[in-house]
Amino acid sequence: MGLRIGVDIGGSFADFAVLDEADRTIRTLKVFSRPDDPGSEVLAGMKQLTERYGIEPSDVAYFTHGTTVGVNAVVQRKGLKLGLITTKHFEDVLEIARLKIPDMYHLKSKRPAPLITRDRVVGVVERMAADGTVETPVDEASVLAAAKALQAAGCEGVVVSLLHSYRNPAHELQVKELIQGALPGMFVSCSHEVWPIIREYERTLTAVIGGYVQPRVSHYLTSLQAALSKSGVGVDLKVTKSNGGVMSAEYGKNNCVQMILSGTASGVIGAAYVSQQCGVKRCMSLDIGGTTADMALIIDGEPQYATGEYIGDFQIHIPSVSVSSVGDGGGSIAWVDRFGVLKVGPDSAGSNPGPVCYGRGGTQPTITDAFAVLGVIGNAELGYNAVKVDVQAARDAIAPLAEKLGKDLLATAEAIVNVSVSSMYAGVSRIISRFGVDPREFTLMPFGGAGPMMACYLARALNVGQLLVPTTPGVLSALGGLIADLKNDFVKTTYYDLTEDTTRALQKEMHLLEAQAREWLSAEGGDPDKASIQVSADMRYRGQSFEIDTPLKPDWLRDGDMREVSAAFHTEHRRLYGHSDEAAPLQVVALRLVITSHTPKPQLREIERAKDASIPSRAVEVWLDGALRSVPMYRRADLLAGHTFDGPAIVAQDDCTTTVLPGYNVHVDAYGNLEIKSVDQAGA
After folding, report:
1. Distance CA 526, CA 534 (A)
2. Which pLDDT tens digit goes with each residue over 267-279?
3. Crossing angle of helices 140-152/170-182, nearest 10°?
4. DSSP string computed for 279-297
């Protein structure tokens, strides 16, 4: 038995959660992240864990890490300068996309500029047929000419995405070898290596996003491994994945696309754990860090999964926890455009220099600075004493915006908050419309350093009547990574008609996927004999344009029971669309397999029950809803089970600050979570 440590490194802070395997207790910590010196935050954190809790590096038996470095690079468009090589005449694949406008209700809305501009896309002479046979061999001269053109354009890396490489990757591998021979040291990525799915745009876009962040993430993980070794921790580093699982750092270096939503998925896993322990049936998680706000749905304690999640402006077509990300976090910068309109994000002040009020050299006003001006923060210790909030510096930073807008300082600060909440509202709308749910039926669970500070504003906009703030919301993502299971997804494009003639072929594909999965798990240190396996198939009626991911039992495919496979699809089609056609021919476009090895989980413990009424530590002046109010401030550590109080109020703790708006009241549950309800719902 030893200590299991989970670390989530965001744009502003590195969060630590430590689980003692002997007594299942959890200890937490926050330190500033260091994007300029990756890994140094781990050294600083391990040192402080020793000083604060007496934790020695030699006691660590497991170390896992989640990061937002990948998603932040895409959201802020600060990734690698890439070139793209396609099959000749398919150079416009990123420009054409799916011929959809971003906002169907806004005829003048424009699609975002691709991560690779058209002048850095080159077609080469080759052609692979849909069945994997070679129609036109690779013309080496065209590949070498493409490599020369991309080098002249200043490309730092190349993505190769050729027609039908999901079926036969030989041409992509040949092109990669030619480029590496012509341009030694050049980073080259092939789409079939990233995620071998059918459809050119989806596969190409996923490969581009992976290549856009790959060298940066790979360097980051290498630096983190070195720091971990230097700190005295002798275990291998694990990294959280977009699908809510974990993998080794070495595997992650070559599969960065699998951890693009690493930090955000960790938060959802942590929120799912808390909702499960507390019996919350329908939960909407809200994770607000330094750069982004991320939303997800959790039903009956289980996160919702999907492909095609948005990373900033783009969809990524790998299996992941269904999260909607927008560019508004606590460090997002507020600015006024040339038309005099107030904007917030997507650029972030990050950790260094960070918000102006942190006193680390920041000069541009952020959402956090707005809350400092409003009086919400700056009245208590924050970030485990790592932060000393300079309210006057925040006021000085926001003053120029107020002058441009013609508003007073407090009204401008409140406007910054309202603009960011509007952006979050749009993000929530995407996810609730996808799943067809009513947000009023959900409990909002805010976490992350800025989540509880902003959650009441969003809940009011959504007409959500109940919130649940966990005991350590500022480090919940670190806890999520700590309890995440060893997990990986595998896919094989089949494109078979579901007939007796294809039964043996599907059985063979299933066998190969399962062998590949068990081999991966064994290499990652898991026990294949104790693993759980989930299987599904992308299926459709012949002639349909898109597929339905249909859950299957592995034995159906192993035994060749195609009747059960067919029945499962008809049932799923009927559930989604209200009808099915059992006489229509079916197609299996792809097989999917998920292998999981489970990790130990902590148990929430009940806290001491209150015998007396809750007493605030002091009153503070806060600007809320257009008025300056004297608001009670409570210290989270003083609140016991059964305590109640009404908003407006502020709750301060080491890792975050909770804002309780007028019209809400608070009850502390048996585990120490804050149950915040609107007065209307509480009285119902």
Report:
1. 16
2. 899 999 999 989 9
3. 50
4. T-SEEEEEEE-SS-EEEEE
Long-range contact set of residues 509-515: C-beta below 8 Å, sequence gap at least 24: 509/591, 510/535, 510/554, 510/557, 510/558, 510/591, 510/593, 511/558, 513/591, 513/593, 514/554, 514/593
Give me the DSSP letters along 251-317: HHHT-GGGGTTHHHHHHHHHHHHHHHHHT-SEEEEEEE-SS-EEEEEEETTEE-EESSEEETTEEE-
Cβ contacts of residue 410 below 8 Å, gap of 6+?
373, 374, 623, 628
Q: Alpha-carbon distance 477 to 457, whole Å?
A: 22
Q: What pLDDT, on a 0 to 100 scale, did the predictor assign at position 581?
A: 94
**Rounded Cα distance, 274 and 483, in Å:** 11
Q: In what order do the strands lie in the sheet with 157-161?
A: 121-124, 82-87, 157-161, 187-190
Whether the CA torsion 314, 319, 323, 328 is positive or negative: it is: negative
Cα separation, 210 vs 217, in Å, equals 10
The structure tokens 């009153």 sit at: 619
Q: Residue 445 in contact with residue 274, Cβ under 8 Å?
A: yes
Between the CA atoms of 494, 495, 501 and 503, what dihedral angle is there, to the nearest 10 degrees?
A: 40
| Residue 357 to residue 83: CA distance in whole angstroms | 40
Contact of 6 with 64, CB cutoff 8 Å: yes
Please state, in angstroms and rounded to a whole number, the distance separating the CA atoms of residues 343 and 423: 10
Question: Tokens 């989270």 appear where?
Answer: 636
On whether the CB atoms of residues 80 and 188 are closer than 8 A, the answer is no
Taking the C-alpha atoms of residue 445 and residue 285, their distance in angstroms, rounded to an integer, is 5
**Among all chains, which residue has been given the structure tokens 């975050």?**
656
Q: What is the pLDDT of residues 364-400, one digit of tens each?
A: 999 999 999 999 998 877 766 667 889 999 999 999 9
In whole angstroms, what is the distance from residue 128 CA to residue 79 CA?
A: 31
Please state whether the peptide bond connecting residue 439 to the residue before it is cis, i.e. omega within 30 degrees of 0: no
- The answer for residues whose C-beta is within 8 angstroms of residue 652's C-beta and 6 or more apart is 379, 380, 381, 382, 617, 633, 634, 635, 636
The whole-angstrom distance between residue 80's C-alpha and the CA centroid of its chain comes to: 20
| 244 and 268 Cβ atoms separated by less than 8 Å | yes
Half-sphere exposure of 584 (CA within 13 A, CB side): 14
Distance CA 523, CA 521 (A): 5
The whole-angstrom separation of Cα 68 and Cα 90 is 32
What confidence tens digit (pLDDT) does each residue in 501-513 have? 889 999 999 999 9
